[in-house]
Design brief:
With 224 residues, the protein is α/β, with parallel strands linked by helices. The chain contains eight helices and eleven strands. The protein folds into two domains: 84 residues, Arc Repressor Mutant, subunit A (Orthogonal Bundle), CATH 1.10.10; 113 residues, 3-Layer(aba) Sandwich (Rossmann fold). It is globular.
């Protein structure tokens, strides 16, 4: 049942975006198995439970650089560790958050980020009534202080939870401070220089898909 790193595997392989989006799903499933005391799992088992193709699962897991024993599979704890290492979740990444409103406060308070190597160390806002307050133990500071502090602390990840009107200013100040990746929850397309990574979380788009699927189901039930 031994799992070993592939001798030919590079220290870090590139992965497609769909693969990157599936890896956390595999990890959650593996955590469930681990809690249940399951020691070994196969690609077929993962695929059957998640409704995926076994070949796709095998290809996705291969980017982590480990291989399972033929006809046996992967040792669950080692596969979890391999995914964490590939995604960078085994090393804490410190982040700054801009927008200490309801959404920002919820993200700061979400303990699950720690399992994924994310630590929001400070929050920033332009609202004078929020500056100086503490959100889940993190001080809310003036947005103008972000660039200098980001440089001093070597922060490379920023999170934007502002209203649409303030998102671009937040992004500009993050980039000025040396932040290289932005997790954007604001409903706006940011303009950033080449080399800056932006991941947009469009809640309205996700809701649109969910609402449309619900309407399809209801229409089919009414027509039945």
């Amino acid at each position: 049942m031994d799992i070993t790193s592939s001798p030919q595997a590079p220290l870090h392989r590139s992965a497609s975006e769909p693969t990157l989006r599936r890896l956390p799903t595999y990890r959650r499933f593996l955590e469930q198995l681990h809690r249940q005391g399951r020691a070994v799992v196969s690609c077929t088992h993962i695929a059957d439970d998640l409704g995926l193709d076994p070949t796709q699962v095998r290809k996705d897991l291969a980017v982590t650089g480990i291989v399972g024993k033929p006809k046996v599979g992967y040792q669950v704890p080692m596969l979890i560790a391999a995914i964490d290492s590939f995604l960078g979740w085994d090393n804490a990444t410190e982040a700054f958050l801009v927008g200490a409103g309801s959404l920002g406060t919820a993200l700061i308070g979400y303990e699950g980020f720690r399992d994924h190597g994310l630590n929001i160390v400070a929050a920033f806002d332009v609202d004078e009534s929020k500056i100086g307050e503490k959100v889940r133990g993190r001080a809310v500071m003036p947005l103008s202080k972000l660039p200098n502090l980001a440089q001093r602390m070597h922060i490379h990840l920023g999170i934007i939870t502002t209203p649409e009107a303030g998102a671009q200013q937040a992004a500009d100040l993050m980039i000025e401070g040396g932040i290289r990746a932005i997790w954007n929850f604001a409903p706006v397309t940011l303009k950033v220089p080449e080399g800056i990574i932006v991941e947009n979380v469009q809640l309205s788009s996700s809701l649109a898909v969910l609402s449309n699927k619900l309407q399809d189901v209801l229409r089919k039930e009414e027509g039945a």
